UniProtKB/TrEMBL annotation:
It comes from the Eukaryota. It comes from Geococcyx californianus. This is WBC30 protein. SUPFAM superfamilies: Growth factor receptor domain (SSF57184). SMART domains: Ephrin_rec_like.
Amino acid sequence: PSDGINGYRCPSGFYCPAGTGLELPCEPGTFSPVPGASGTSPQSCVPCYPGSFCASIGLSSPTGPCTEGFYCPANFSSVSPTAFLCPQGHFCQSGAAHPTPCPAGEYQPARGSASCVPCQRGFYCQELVTGDARRCPPHTYCPAGTLKLACPG
């Protein structure tokens, strides 16, 4: 939009209250990507995209992706690349919007991880959100990186 006085287009990274001639920067956690597209209030600025962060004022695009081992969720204006620590039993790659559960046959005992670890032979990791490998129970066998399997016969 224009400033309402002389048709001036509001620059990207800002919003321009109607009739004031003011250019006010978008707050941290938000941005305004297109010149002239910003509205007349702070709510006109766009929340930072899921998986990214917007660290300062007056941004025309996100600052960058969230750091691996962390996530920046949707509907949360992230101002830091380390907004939320990835929980145990999950992994978070760079730019993650949410933690991803470790797949069956893998686990992650630590928080803040970018990958999961395959289960060792003799252990299983069947649950999708397990933080620890479990010893293979009697009458089953557990090949590396797999689930527990019943012994034949």
